[in-house]
Amino acid sequence: MAGSKPHALQVTCANCGLQRICFPRGLTQQEIIRLDAILQSQPVVGKGEALFKQGEAAKAIFALKSGVVKLCRYDRSGNEIIHTFYLPGDVIGLEALDQPVYQYDAIALDRCNLCRVEVADLDRLAQQMPNLNRQVLQMMRRELELERAHFENVSSRSADQRLAHFVWHIAERFRDRGYAMDTFQLPILHRDIATHLGLTPETVSRILRKFHQQGILTWQRKQVTLHDPCAVRELAGVEAPDEAGEGEVCPVCQAHVG
Amino acid sequence: MAGSKPHALQVTCANCGLQRICFPRGLTQQEIIRLDAILQSQPVVGKGEALFKQGEAAKAIFALKSGVVKLCRYDRSGNEIIHTFYLPGDVIGLEALDQPVYQYDAIALDRCNLCRVEVADLDRLAQQMPNLNRQVLQMMRRELELERAHFENVSSRSADQRLAHFVWHIAERFRDRGYAMDTFQLPILHRDIATHLGLTPETVSRILRKFHQQGILTWQRKQVTLHDPCAVRELAGVEAPDEAGEGEVCPVCQAHVG
DNA sequence: ACGCAAACTTGACCTTGATCAAGTCATTCC
DNA sequence: GGAATGACTTGATCAAGGTCAAGTTTGCGT
Description:
The structure is a homodimer. Chain A has two domains: 13-154, Jelly Rolls, CATH 2.60.120; 157-256, Winged helix-like DNA-binding domain superfamily/Winged helix DNA-binding domain (Arc Repressor Mutant, subunit A, Orthogonal Bundle). Helices cover 38% and strands 19% of the residues of chain A. Chain A is built from eight helices and eleven strands. Chain A has helices at residues 29-38, 119-128, 130-155, 159-176, 190-197, 201-213, 229-236, 251-256, and strands spanning 44-45, 50-52, 60-66, 69-74, 80-86, 91-92, 105-108, 112-118, 183-185, 217-220, 223-226. In chain A, α2 (119-128) crosses α3. The longest helix of chain A is centred in the middle third of the chain and has 26 residues, at 130-155. Chain A is globular, with a radius of gyration of 19 Å. The first copy, chain A, starts with 28 loop residues before the first helix and ends with a helix. Residues 1-8 and 254-258 of chain A have low confidence and may be disordered. Chain A binds chain B through residues 73, 75-77, 79, 81, 83, 94-95, 97-99, 103, 126-127, 130, 133-134, 136-138, 140-141, 143-145, 147-148, 150-152, 154-156, 198, 237, 239, and chain B through 73, 75-77, 79, 81, 83, 94-95, 97-99, 103, 126-127, 130, 133-134, 136-138, 140-141, 143-145, 147-148, 150-152, 154-156, 198, 237, 239.
């Protein structure tokens, strides 16, 4: 993963590998340099630790350089509800721009490298950079879009479909970040997946066994492998991107896999 | 409802009854006047008609003055998914600020009075009014918060709880708008409720009968009555607002009802 | 390397809510 | 006003997935 060498030179937005998908997307080179100037700290958070917790003063937002983070909250009877998993390149805690305290917990699922941006600094910068406002609005809208897509997945589909859709969605995000989509490390507990999808760990376990037996995908330890990406996509209920194309090779599996 | 007299004087933001909850919230008097200037049209949309449809060019956002609107979309097998119902004072189609086309259908559930704001006009105005950017961001964040709350409701609760939570949530929104919370007209089909909550119409019908028999609430025709608001809130899994208060009267039912 | 705690698996059983079918009730359109 | 259409109700049946219980495996701390 990016940024894991402890002795590496100081990473700036200008030379960060995540520039394309992170904050700076859509900003000019000059603007990126000014953004860099307010990025004071690049904290590391250990497995299980919180970037922030519900109720804490919301003073900063974070960009995730490596690792995985879950955004969650507890209902009145203490059940965890997991809204999202963040991957490298995602921006976490945007709500802080708008509210005095965080509304959710953000928990690192493994060791995470982050960039921390103070809300006050960002606000000040935004007054001089209209593009940044647009950028922030777009990130917020994307977050809304993700939550809606997730709701559509959970609201009315079978357990098999939910799980297939989840895996496919994660695979797509890895693909978009330039990684292989047919095999990747995913440090998420099956229990957390179950919670995220409104299922039980037992059900997830049974479905994963079935998928494995059918040769569709395996998910053992933290290693996910899509043996038949098209079948996963099909189960997930996602359209093939180039339906009207060549028609010879599967556009998803051939174009992006391996 | 507001704005229903056809011969009424021209309604402006400055004299609109929804000023507190709609767009202008957080703007100065001067800014509201400038906002007014770009509000050219105040369309009326009939029952079942669309404000906009998925795939259309996203050129405007809307403020709802009267009526109810659903935001929905269809999955691959043609099943409707309903994300939100908008009540008077809500702003609809914010995504348009950020995208070339609408991603959802917005359908009027009864006759609706609207304000239409062109995205281009709003963009231009926002460059001169930093408050407006903040305002837009806040509305977007609220929309995200609503979607997450809805997901939490549907993801892991029983059918009874989902329905109670839905009714309670709507009642709260009416209360916040200055209407009675224990009885109101709600022009939403039971079928649409079922879709919104990931249930079937049959299940909704059975649960409503049970609630009626238990004296908790009735929902006949379009008339909703909460006979025991506290029971509804309890079922919905929502904390009483003033738990540590007087302790004598139920803070919700006495303070806001009737 | 050992042992404990947590994660995961597997099987038997049960509950919730979906499905199917046949009705009743409202609303709308001539 | 009366038929036709769509909304809602009610009952019988069924299956997906939850629950409970007892395993096995994994990972971590010492």
